[in-house]
Write a structure and sequence with these properties.
The protein has 9 helices and 15 strands. The protein is an alpha/beta fold.
Amino acid sequence: MKTLLLLLFVFGIYACAPTEEPIPEKSAPPPFSDSSITRVDSLLITEVALPTVINYLQFDTTTIAIFQNLATETKGEMYLAANALSVVETIIEVLETHGDDNIDLCFLIDKTGSMMDDIYIIQSSMDRIFAAIKAYKNVNVALAYYGDKNEDGKLWLEINSFSQDFDRLAKKFKTVRYSGGGDAPESVTDGAYAVINELNWTSTNKRVILLIGDAPSLVPPLASYSVQDVIDAANTKEILMNYYPIVVGFAGEKPGPAKENLIASVYPNPSAGLFNILFEKEQEYTLEVFSSSGALVYQRKVANKKHQIDLSGSKEDLYVLRVLTKNNEQVDQRKILIRK
């Protein structure tokens, strides 16, 4: 009996003792995921390529007006090249945008003293320019240069006929004779009229005149032909002659606007789409917003010290707010985030 009681006592102790649970194996940590702060930080350091801003005070406004008129009335397009370094890039842009097979292409270039640095850059880049032309089939190229017919005598105009011998054309271009040109206005319209009527145009597809200069045109009586005369001559030909003028900025000027602190703050940022912009001072501004791919999604002119923009319809992404003063003299920009 005592033995039985002892066994029951011992069994009771073991039955009441807590059982030791097995220690689970240490699980792997969950995979790392960016926090909102990390994601915002990473977006804010993303570089966004924006369209180049040109300071319009670098250009002669009369030249722009004349060249724009020629372009518009001949179904062409005017371009601005901020300085000599950007002239070649602009030429190539024109060729890539408006080039075609089976065309006649005439370069009509101001050869006066103020254009010497521009012509030198073009001469040094003929291989690139001709490579862009050779992307098309059967392109005839002519080179023509003008100065001031009242100052330069018989040397004011030089016209080289159309050719597909690019080596000969390159050599010809490197022997261009500069002219004094006198004061700022040059014989733009007389040169433009001459190439329309004196060149051996052959293309029945497209005829292009790429006009490059930095000065306005002389007007009658100092010029034989007006802008309207040139437009009429281009439009009365069987094949329309498209003018693609490139206005070159003044030598020595900066290629773009000065970077200034124009924006005091942008809030909230990030935002679901509504952003308040507070400027440092009240003046005229142009607001632009670009997507992370550089596409313009918003543009507005304002004159108040505070402005609100609504981008609620835009997708969640990084954007760049750019602010410009009148004539694009100054620029400032901020990165903004849309988070839904």
